[in-house]
Amino acid sequence: MKDPGREVLAPNGSCPLLDQQAGYCKAANSLRVIVGGSTFTVDKATMAENCEYFRALFKSGMRECRQEEIQLQCVGAGGFLVLLQVLRREQPMLNSDEIVEAIECTAFLQAPALTKHLMNIIDSENCLLMYHTAETYGVWDLGHQSALFIRDAYADLKEDVAALPSKLVEYVESLLPSSYMAVCSHSPSTELLQDIQRTVCYLDEEPREWRVLTHLPLNTSTTMAGVAVLDNKLYIVGGVHDMSKKVVETGFCYNPVLDSWSTIRGPQQLRYNFTLIGHEGCLYAVGGEYDRKALSSVERYGPADGGWGFLSPLPRPVSSVVSAVAVNRIFICLWRGQGATDIHEYVPDRDQWLLVTTLVREQSYGLYMVAHRDNLHVIRNGPCEDFLLCVMDSYNLSSGQWTAMCGQYGNTKGSLFTAAVKGDSVFTLSRHVTTEYTVEDSRWRVRREMKGFGRIGSIYTFLMRLPKAGAPLTELCPDPTQEQTLQELCIRPRTSTPCSQDV
After folding, report:
1. DSSP for 44-88?
2. Buried-most residue among 246, 258, 371, 441 (CB within 10 A)?
């Protein structure tokens, strides 16, 4: 980080004068802000746009709004510098002292962009500090996100959590942990009763068993479909009916709280074999195929208005795009032959695809990518003679450096091409075994093995938070039409059927 004792110019230093019609004082656009003995030169319009404190100050009519210099007493220079970095679109990783000052700064100045950045960098090393400090300063969104992270990593953090105030511990324990979920590829069915494979399942970690969450609607296809979770709802979009590659035009949404399915509009461009990404309240349909031709088009869906709209296309047509979201940023892998894989980032507010880096490695087939903290782990098969063993390379977004991960992973029972990250754990599965790895600096270490997901075909995996109580996931009573009162649904403990194995 820069020396906070130096004068720093905030973003957009050449912006025009503030518009008096917008309710602000007409004055020069630059302002000197003195914080703890350090002087920062900032742009008034930028600060008013991003901080409630400055917006209220410039609208107040007080003499400060006409001054060329003001002094802030309640924030530290380090925290204010982090705010300016975030407003310059930088994404600094912070140490403990910087985190505390940044939380103090966003609490006092009411800066949503800084709060969002802090939420994006929560990890197992700082989550307790984030949680306690955010609750102390009343930054509730950050406190809640930190508590959710702690809940997911509770087994590893339990002893440290016990040192928190009892009310904070109680809140963490009241939250729903994420569950590892899986669904196989299925085509639309005309009959559900005997089709026990058309189910969405979750891993019950205590008995280490897979259990059924819900049945897929009859006309849903998960064959070459887009599958993603957004705001804790499962979306299945597109897919094909059969070998003719006729596209399913309707999308489907599952709400675990209501234990119900609903339909949504499909993308404007019919597509299959594409990637669906849930990010910041929107779904992104990326690439894919139609009429056996690869697509470069990208569409975004907003659940609030129910509409799809086209975005900037991919750099080239591609199907089965590999994607990951790291520190709240969307990344994809595009393989371009001769062992070269380009990693691009999509920047929503600019509607741009930016080339981040290129990995050049020999590989036989297959590619997958998962994100942990500010690292992208790119998983590929080893040399052709060891095609069942996966190797990994890790790209650090902060340093811009690649690291070859130690060892080889997977065996004849499965591979890592269905991985999902929860805290510092990575879950992956095959028909024979479900494996939890602990992510370390230079390798993934096997933590435990559980029962495999006994299904055939392509598998989609993801995380969801499932209610502790409510409508049973799968009824065990002989009459599936039996009705229950609302009170019974609210107090009845969760029950479910085991996921069938090796059919």
Report:
1. HHHHHHH-HHHHHHHHS--GGGG-SEEEESSS-HHHHHHHHHHHT
2. 371
Question: What are the CA-CA distances from residue 466 to residues 255, 473, 494 (Å)?
Answer: 10, 10, 10
SS3 219: coil
Reference 70, options 92, 89, 90, 48; nearest CA is 48
Which neighbouring-strand residues pair with 40?
A: 8, 33
Buried b (16+ CB within 10 A) or exposed e, 415-424: bbbbbbbbbb
> In this predicted model, what pLDDT tens digit does every residue of 108-142 receive, in sequence order?
999 999 999 999 999 999 999 999 999 999 999 99
**Residue 364 CB partners (closer than 8 Å, separation 6+):** 381, 382, 383, 384, 387
* Average pLDDT of the segment spanning 417-430: 92
Contacts of 37 by beta carbon, 8 Å cutoff, 6+ apart: 5, 77
Containing 302, the helix (H) or strand (E) segment is strand 298-302
Q: Of 245 and 28, which is predicted with more confidence?
A: 245
CA distance to 158, 413, 460, per residue, from 164 (Å): 10, 42, 37
pTM over 0.70: yes
Q: What is the pLDDT of residue 385?
A: 62
- Can you list the domains of the chain with their CATH numbers? 1-116 (3.30.710.10), 122-175 (no CATH)
